[in-house]
Amino acid sequence: MGLLRGCGGGSGSRTPVRGSLTKLAYYSTVQHKVARVRSFDHSGKDIDNEPLYEISVQEEITARLHFIKFENTYIETCLDFIKDHLVNTETKVIKATGGGAYKFKDLIEKKLGLKVDKEDVMTCLIKGCNFVLRNIPHEVFAYQKDSDTEFRFQTNHPNIFPYLLVNIGSGVSIVKVESEDKFEWIGGSSIGGGTFWGLGALLTKTKKFDELLQLASKGQHTNVDMLVKDVYGGAYQTLGLSGNLIASSFGKSTTADKEFSKEDMAKSLLHMISNDIGQLACLHAKLHNLDKIYFGGFFIRGHPVTMRTITYSINFFSKGEVQALFLRHEGYLGAIGAFLKGAEQDNPNQYSWGENYAGSSGLMSTSPDVSPLQRTRSGTFDMLEMDRLERPLVNLPLLKDPSTYIPDTVDLTDDAMARKYWLTCFEEALDGVAKRAAASQPDSVDAQERAEKFRQKYWNKLQTLRQQPFAYGTLTVRSLLDTREHCLNEFSFPDPYSKVKQKENGIALKCFQSVIESLDSLDWEERQFALVKGLLAGNVFDWGAKAVSDVLESEPQFGFEEAKSKLQGKGRSLLEGPPHKCALIFADNSGIDIILGVFPFVRELLSRGTEVILACNSGPALNDVTYSESLIVTERIAAMDPVIHSALRDEKLLLVQTGSSSPCLDLSRLDQGLAVLVRERQTDLVVIEGMGRAIHTNYYAVLRCESLKLAVIKNSWLADRLGGKIFSVIFKYEVPCK
Amino acid sequence: MECVQRRKQIFPWFGLDIGGTLVKLVYFEPKDITAEEEEEEVENLKSIRKYLTSNVAYGSTGIRDVHLELRDLTLCGRKGNLHFIRFPTHDMPAFIQMGSEKHFSSLHTTLCATGGGAYKFEQDFRTMGDLELCKLDELDCLIKGVLYIDSVGFNGHSECYYFENPTDAERCQKLPFNLENPYPLLLVNIGSGVSILAVYSKDNYKRVTGTSLGGGTFFGLCCLLTGCSTFEEALEMASHGDSTKVDKLVRDIYGGDYERFGLPGWAVASSFGNMMSKEKRESVSKEDLARATLITITNNIGSIARMCALNENINRVVFVGNFLRINTISMRLLAYALDYWSKGQLKALFLEHEGYFGAVGALLGLLDSA
What was the ipTM of the complex prediction? Predict the structure, then answer.
């Protein structure tokens, strides 16, 4: 229970109890530290010697959903835990689903003094399924045993309905889900997990489900099954049939005289049941014209063996037309659904949620033989945490095809070389990040200790990902960065760069006017070139990039002019031709980047009559400029510059938040307010700046309007990969074909 | 199957269907042999005819299903009786050996065979028996056989029948069904495995799907679970067992019907589901296990057949194959399940000559080829 922490007044708990594992879902409010910036009142003060704004660390309360599962043996301990966390709540009812809801009803009611509300299993399952499909990126995967990447994660489709859910518990239920509230049981089969287990136990005298699967994975079904080639002899080729197809399951055991090995019988049974389920599922999919089937239930849950046989069966019976899909958090669906049902008054569906990588266990190990320890651990105590986001997230309306949009440029689950490089890269940078985190809170007595805990936690995550790159969905540079941010937050380092950003913003602001003056002195053509160069040069200043932080640490004098000279000039004006109606700019770093790179560019756009939406992160990540910092910075620039001033006043320049706290950018999960504004202002140009947003992500993103992706490659390995040199420039101007 | 003219296909007339478990043999015994023919009939042929028609059992495993014999049949202008004989496929070498000893090859007849074994044993026939097999397509033969036997009827009775009130022991009745206008129909052949065909006309059909959970699975699992050694023994055990001790029913989980999904409490939720528990494993009998195996396999075939019927938009489902031989439990269950789950839209039909249609089709193929 020590794994659970920071649980405030939970508003309710839900316990689905099924089979030998209990899954518990609860809602908690988590207090965590956030860095806030606040503008000083500068009137009558010597602003030259004052910091630009005040940084304070405050406690903020956010909602978090916790899902844990553990063996039923611990049910009493678990109930004690719930009891401790229910003290101050109004909760009188606990929601329970699954067979155990009957089994443990009395115990729960007695121990907690709460009424147990039994919820319908399937309703909960589907509610949970809809929730994860909508809220967890890379929730869905296809399983391909014989490919390099066993787990092939799918991008979230904007429209999740309709789908077929095949739940393989002791029996099989096939449910067609058409909308949030509309689903229909369209069929089922009594041949399911219970048949494998029950019949398997009779045949092999092996009692445990997992052990039966183990047996099966070692067996040869051809000793027990009658194959097509057994019936046809060697001549089956002439019939266009594969000789290895099973003609009759257990067809060779029609004799009392022969002994069959446990392994062989278990394997034959596994094939028989998986094939049968796959066949029925395909017949139902065909009848209802559906091509996606999600499989769940204890038969599937985290068992590569059954995922493999089911996938094979679906491919075989549908001739590849239907895809067998699995869910990372399948084991939690019932718990999530029961929880959501109980929390309907809070309406969790109106929020967006984000998976917290720091607090969630990854997908199970592929092979129990490879890492039995990890498997046992995650099989018996597994958790998922979801943070409630302040505002709902939606697709950028300008995405050409939201259903095929993939934010990430390189799939590190696929690309073993890239994975090795980046994992090492993040490992090597870790000490520095921990040091910086500790240094960012000089007044805190336990900062060192927390920084060490952070270091240990992130290190462990990286080791897990080395073994199981698929643990949290597709492994990408973005997920590595996000996991680091989540781990930092976990140990109360909400914004390690806050002071650095504050200082750099102050310095850059002082240079703003002279930069503007020098730009204004140039003729039109030179100015456009200088503006783009400025954008790129400003972007070199990035503490997140290792190469740059090395230069910055060793050469504090490293200045704007010098950075500019390091760039190979490459610029192409997109500012010729008629002005754009409205430009959406995703900003990157604080300081020089935003103030001396982005703002002069914004100013030029505004002068041309183009409206500008400047989008900054909602929460801190590295030295990226946050929305609240951008408000202060803009206010200060407006005070110096009449163009910015009037644009702000006339709402030609609009500051918005992205809804994200990541150094990368997922255009399918953006703040709803931003999306509304983009649509209202008829945005026809999107500018994406920086390595995280324009190279690690969105390099291949296709938009319905003109776009400019620009960044300086501040990583020599990546530069090599892209065929350039370090500090070379990405300048990708794309015009959609009509 | 009308023969336009009296063909010169020489006797003996056999049709052979060599399946995964059983060999089905049909033999046409001419009853209109003229004195002249009698005179000419070689000794070998006579001895074969006598052997087959005067016995009901051959060796230790061959059996003639006397009750299925079709009498006074006119086939290609000849009058005679059609005999139905079966023996296990593993005795095939002995059968070929016998053919060799009886100098079958000297008769210069063609032996038409279908089923996988026609391929598997082709070489053995050639080397051991000096016989060239004429291999015929399994599904062609099956359909040909079904249509023919149904058209000639069963000694004046209907070949095709159905069950009324299939689950009610008192009121259940086997009633004749007129399959005069049979198309479209779904033909489900349950042998060791199962093949499902959609038949749209005499020569327009397709194999829709199949399943490996068939008669072989029932028998194979029964052997492993109960130590029985014959299909008959397995069925006998099943008839005395109680599958609800082995299977987990909907009511075992939900206490009654699962109304949210309209599932009745008596429906099986998990076949062998109770066997997950050690206590229950120790309290069931072999008979219970045999019954549960039978119910599991039968329900599953019913369920796949029903889905195929829906997908193909066909409402008559004809079940054939030797799995149904002396297996009233399965037939009634199929009849009931199809009716219940389709809300009366689908009808399960059965044919008296269950497993012999492939062999009949092979025989017809022989006569066609002349």
Answer: 0.95
